[in-house]
Amino acid sequence: MFPWARLARAAPSHLRENCEKSTGFNRFSSHTLTAGNRPATGNRKTANPPWSKNMHDALQKEIASYEKRTPKSAAAHKRALERIPLGVASNYRHYEPYPLFVKDGKGSRIHDLDGNEYIDHNLCFGALMAGHCHPAVVKAVEQKLHEGTTFGMPHEQEWELAEEICKRYPVEMVRFGSSGTEVTMHACRIARAATGRDKILKFEGAYHGLHDTALVSVKPKAEDCGDPDAPNSVPGGAGIPKNSLENVVVASFNNLKSVENRFKQHPGQIAAIILEPILMNVGLCMPQPGFLQGLRDICSKNGALLIFDEVKTGAKLAWGGASEFFGVKPDMICLAKSIGGGLPLGAFGASRAVMDLISQHKVFHGGTYNTNRVAMAAGLATFRQVLTRENYAHVGELSKKLTEGYRAIVKKSGLQAYVVSAGVNGALMLYPKEIQNYRDWTKIDVDLWRHYWFAMVNRGVLPQPYWWDEQWTISVQHTEADIDKHLAVFEEVAPALAKAQQERGLAFVGAAGH
Ligand SMILES: Cc1ncc(COP(=O)(O)O)c(C=O)c1O
Known about the structure:
Blueprint: H1 5-10, H2 13-23, H3 57-69, H4 71-81, E1 102-106, E2 109-112, E3 117-120, H5 123-126, H6 135-147, H7 156-168, E4 173-177, H8 180-195, E5 199-203, H9 222-225, H10 242-246, E6 248-251, H11 256-265, E7 270-275, H12 291-302, E8 305-309, H13 313-316, H14 321-326, E9 332-335, E10 346-350, H15 352-359, H16 373-386, H17 389-413, E11 418-422, E12 425-429, H18 438-441, H19 446-458, E13 461-462, E14 472-473, H20 480-504
Parallel strand pairs: 3-13, 5-6, 5-7, 7-8, 8-9
Antiparallel strand pairs: 1-2, 2-3, 4-10, 9-10, 11-12, 12-14
The structure holds pyridoxal-5'-phosphate (PLP).
């Protein structure tokens, strides 16, 4: 997820210059124009918008077809721009020429404002392994709507959901929140309190939400990255205090040497390593064998905590999340997205000893909407009736079918790419060999990826969220027929992608150039 550039472009020019200097947002310059930069006539087709510069003909055609099919989204976006920055509620939802505006969704499908139907593998950036309107979630939520939605008082569902979580993940106590950002923020604070240290180690390219500790080196510009064994801490936008930046140490994913280096450089100062066990904000990047265990050992040796940010993997990778899947036990876990069945729900957990810092009033945690009854009911229904062993078997079959189908089509078409998946997530990676870290990911061909995305969308499949650092999600409500249609559409699109790739040769602009 990384439309950071939009922040920079939307700012007044003196601020923008500052912002670009300090954050490198300008790397997205060919894709970053906001409404203010569009032709004043509002006619997107008359002028050649700068974000379309150097696009392959085939991509231009797909975008033209997208504009033809979705005029109501264009109009809705234009109107939204008057009152909402970028016309969207989260920067990640904005892209050129304009985002699809959604009307409704049910099961595995959604409709846009023009009535076009899509098989949905965006699923709210992976927050809906339940699919849309899962009957068990709807029933549980409906009931609570009539019994009172929120009281700011304890209730019995809290214990019930904490039990469900402690059954699956290696934690003894849990507290709840409403988003991933919130729970990774609390986890970092607790780790600092538990160790009496200020620094948190994170990986270059990893996303853990929007708080000051997390928004560092998320998508740094190549020239700002520095030594791969000791990467620079690059702010992910203006407004992050320098003092805060000093307390975030960055290492390279799949590079244990870089992690050991950082611990040597900051002896006794690193409170925790926070990581996604599978790096999922660079497409999908698997940990190499031994990497997670290596981190476990480094943390144990240095008295630091290991925090698994399982906002994406917790529900979607396996019944017991990444610790079950990889057999490595973290000290803390953070959960959000798919555990809420579509409602805003987050949780963080650890051993009793660590969580007792809250019980002893040493670390403060609160929140008006924590454990509101609607989100808790959705969470309970999700754990008990959606994230079941049978459903993991069902989505596992679908994931296998989709992954193997993609691989066969890639091979047949001659596309230089590979396909990777884990649990219900997967991605087409437009790069010939497996990426190991963020810097590898910056080499993927972005315009070819856009060609893929718009071509799929124009044919009724939302293959993943927009942005080439995302991945597909399969919900429990997807069917074999959905996967067959997805594959049929990819089969139709792949030869054009292979052709465009050959014609563009090595002249493409990688993700780092955008
Ligand atoms: C791994 C990870 N952690 C944390 C977050 C932040 O979650 P939220 O958007 O709910 O604040 C995200 C969001 O995409 C994420 O992918």
